[in-house]
Amino acid sequence: MTCHDVQTLLPFRRTGDLLPEDAALLDRHVSSCPDCQQRLAAATAADAALTRAFQGVVVPEGLKARVRSTVAATQTRITRQRWLARLSAFAAIAVTGLLIWGYVAARPKFDPEGLAIVNGWTAEAGTVPNLVFSWLEAERLPTELPYEFDFRYYVAHGYEKLGNAYVPVIKFQDQSTAPKTTFVKLYFLRPGDADATGASVAQSSFCTARPIPGPNGLTFILVYTGADPAPIAIPRTRSIN
Amino acid sequence: MPSIQSLVDEHYQALYRYAYRLSGSAADAEDLTQETFRKALHRLATLRDADRVKPWLFRILRNAYLHRIRDDRRRRVVPLDGEVARPEAESADWPVDPERLQEALDNLDESFRTPLILYYFDDFSYKDIADQMDVPIGTVMSRLARGKAYLKDALTPRTMP
């Protein structure tokens, strides 16, 4: 290492930026070179003087206490904000939970075994249709249906889970064809439930699904066994739109 | 991870001195110190390496200072960009008046002032300074060399003719 190298590397020696092997080479050279020793001593003294001057700033009395006080106040504010945020989130979850619980608790259950099939009219004839239409009104569903339904075949009304949506449905069944199952279901597919735009009649070997446009974006889906829903359901002659 | 109060106890003096050298004003230095610890409190979770707390705090302070002065139309008057660094004045023992030092620093642009301040506050390597300022190490070396030459010229006692 030459004196010129030492002059170049000296600033790095102070800051610790030199690699250990370079620092060792520099120290070895300096230890045997009077000129570089003097140069190093002068640079060290100059740096020391400037360091003392740079750090020679009088720190105001009480600064530490004031900063601690500011930090403590900020900590309190942050803690309060975090608790408020947690409380808001909890409240939102609780309200949402209550709404979901209320909705789930209030909506009619689909209970095909819970209600007797109405055959013929009794003294309380008209009760089941009134029940169903009252339910439709309460659910803000259209009471004008695309088919005339014979409520002697009525089984139940409620919700069925289709995909991620709970879809209102009325079920009718002809028990006289047992053991062969004959049923008709009328689904009320609302715009938020699924997109039934462009849906067409689907048939399988067992049943038929017929979409019928309803009011306000709603789609009726009539599902029935076989190719004809009669006598349970008979199409109306006029359009409902 | 250290608590914020322990950081205050350990670093408030160094931060205040740094802030004073940057701003040249005791009032601004205290404001900057307060602001630095407030911001550090918000960002404490982002501190990855407890050993790097000091450079982390200094960086927060410098950014706070730069934010304050960005609209300051009063620019420092001593340009050092084109100045060639002269060989360091070799003096084994020359006193440096801290107030004269501040006057000299106040005349420097922040881009030259900061490396000088960080260099003489110890513990800051060229790499640390380069990281603080987001500039290459070579730029730091160049600005330091020019800055040191300027300071020594400004602070060396003049002999009367």
Averaged pLDDT of chain B: 82
**How would you name the oligomeric state of the polypeptide chains in this document?**
heterodimer
- The computed structural class of chain A is alpha+beta
Largest inter-chain interface? Answer: A-B, 35 and 49 residues
Strands side by side in the biggest sheet of chain A: 2-3-4-7-6-5
Number of helices of chain A: 5
What number is the mean pLDDT of chain A? 77
Principal-axis shape of chain B: globular
Topology of chain B as a string of helices (H) and strands (E): HHHHHHH
Tell me the radius of gyration of chain B.
Answer: 17 Å
Q: In percent terms, what proportion of residues of chain B is strand?
A: under 5%
Overall outline of chain A = elongated
Q: Based on DSSP secondary structure assignment, what is the total number of beta strands of chain A? A: 8
- Beta-strand segment tally of chain B: 0
Poorly predicted runs of chain A are 109-125
Q: Beta-strand level of the residues of chain A, as a percent range?
A: 15-25%
Structural class given helices, strands, pairing of chain B?
Answer: mainly alpha
- Poorly predicted runs of chain B are 83-92
The N- and C-terminal alpha carbons of chain B lie at a distance of 59 Å
> How much helix is in the residues of chain A?
40-55%
